[in-house]
Amino acid sequence: MDNKNNFKNNYKKPFNNTDNKLIKNNLHSDVSDQNQEERDNIVCGRNSVIELMKGNRTVEKLLVSKGDKEGSVLLIISMARERNIPIIEAEKAQLERISNNSNHQGVVAYATDFKYCEINDIIQKAADLGEKPFIVIIDGVSDPRNLGAIIRTADASGVHGIIIPKRSSCTMTSAVNKSSAGAVEFASVARVTNISSAIEELKKQNIWIYGADGECENTLYQTDFTDRAVALVLGNEGQGLSKLVKTHCDYLVKIPMKGNINSLNVSVAGAILMYEVIRQKG
């Protein structure tokens, strides 16, 4: 109870009514001309905002819902005040508009845009850790919830980086961030013009490419991932891997299916593949 009271005592409305009206007008002009789902600099939801505060991006301002503050919202407010981040009270309708009607949980943060890296940065990250590169390549995943879930598992399983295409794939939006539970803030993500060219670049670095394909003969449990650098390629939710990308893979592997359904959600399939790799690597 004492901690809760301390948080309440530390929190105060940073602006008067006149300032709040000006801020609302400015926020409206910021977002009216662009679909919020496509913005990389808006982070919604309590866990995602907490991880954002811990990460490397600069947080420009924090919006919190009007009314009583409790639980993790008080923690977020305290973290923002420690970092001298402006805290603005907003109406629920405003937060819903800014967050594109996602489950914002009463908090929305504006941050600098997500910073993508280069493929060589991912390889160097592995080298700095004294490990062989472990990479996930996304061949056109379009659902932000799937991409977020993949990034969350990649973080948990020690993947060094993720490669996504510049086109035909979602980017690091607020929905991806929320679905990743904030793991986006710690992920190394490279955007490339052509996935096939990126694969060939990885091959030159002695990285073996394994494409997930439910129609191939070889299962992941028959595949040796142990003493080598590995890149897993995951395809689109509906069509899977493109024919061109398949031809650039060193191996195609599938997850054995025993039931009546012949496929898995791409984020679930990705999790199974990633954890089989780390199981074999010990």
Describe the protein's architecture and organization.
It is built from eleven helices and ten strands. It has helices at 2-10, 17-31, 46-54, 72-82, 92-98, 119-128, 144-156, 174-179, 195-203, 243-248, 266-281; strands at 42-44, 59-65, 87-90, 107-111, 134-139, 161-165, 189-192, 207-212, 229-235, 251-253. Helix 8 (174-179) links the parallel strand 6 and strand 7. The radius of gyration is 21 Å and the shape is elongated. The N and C termini lie far apart (44 Å). Mean pLDDT is 85; it is low at 1-38.
Radius of gyration: 21 Å
The count of domains is: 2
The count of DSSP E runs of length 2 or more, i.e. the number of strands, is 10
Count of helices? Answer: 11
Largest beta sheet: what is the strand line-up? 7-6-5-9-8-10
Largest sheet: 6 strands, parallel
CATH topology of the largest domain: Alpha/beta knot
CATH architecture field of the largest domain: 3-Layer(aba) Sandwich
Give the class-level CATH name of the largest domain. Alpha Beta
